[in-house]
């Protein structure tokens, strides 16, 4: 099993929480949606950020809504992605959360994690292939806002998945699609993920190295989900990459 990024030909990056701190923005928007939603209906237990990590993190928008509702024994009609934000449907709730997310993105902007940018640049300089694989339909605007859009020739996001009928994480389909587009088999590619659902997807896809990035999910949960190793920041992998490059030459 590869232990260092220097030993793989391609690296597939999750976006929110791995490259940019936008998992925190998602987390906040989900809380602004579900805290009043459950309280108004007197549904117990009340929503907390623990629900985000357990049920929502890393999944496509409407899957996140559905998983949270199921956790409270609730269900709503699925509706349609064109539903307005006040519709009492899975899509309506998801769209309400999306308005909250975009409001924060617009007012606060995005700054990528410096360690992630250093790793991206080091990998490109070392000739590795890289891609973003995100469940989010907002991946491109987030990359633009962070000034990183030009770093990635391949972005597989929630829009790509919907267009191609690919199931979202924890299914490995989006990661496998990205690897195929890069022309690298899973046995030669690494996955970097901060969500349990994403780690599970990486392992199910047979990727040789699945790194959990602990931004709040917890090292134990990421390890239990199957991460080969867990780091706090991508800087830790930068060293690993440099060392491997030295060993190669
Ligand atoms: O931006 P969208 O399309 O609503 O996607 C939402 C999801 O996008 C994922 O990237 C995040 O990890 C999830 O936590 C989030 O809920």
TrEMBL record:
Keywords (alphabetical) are: Carbohydrate metabolism, Hydrolase, Isomerase, Magnesium, Metal-binding, Phosphoprotein
> Cross-referenced InterPro entries, in alphabetical order?
B-phosphoglucomutase_hydrolase, Beta-PGM-like, HAD-like_sf, HAD-SF_hydro_IA, HAD_sf, PGP-like_dom2
Q: Which Gene3D superfamilies match?
A: HAD superfamily/HAD-like, Putative phosphatase, domain 2
Q: Pfam families of this UniProt entry?
A: Hydrolase
Enzyme class, UniProt record, top EC level: isomerase
Q: What is its EC number?
A: 5.4.2.6
Keyword Magnesium annotated:
yes
Record field: catalytic activity: beta-D-glucose 1-phosphate = beta-D-glucose 6-phosphate
Any GO MF annotation of the entry: hydrolase activity
What the record says about family reads: Belongs to the HAD-like hydrolase superfamily. CbbY/CbbZ/Gph/YieH family.
This protein is called what?
Beta-phosphoglucomutase
Q: What is the native source organism of this protein?
A: Streptomyces hebeiensis
Read off the lineage from the record.
Bacteria, Bacillati, Actinomycetota, Actinomycetes, Kitasatosporales
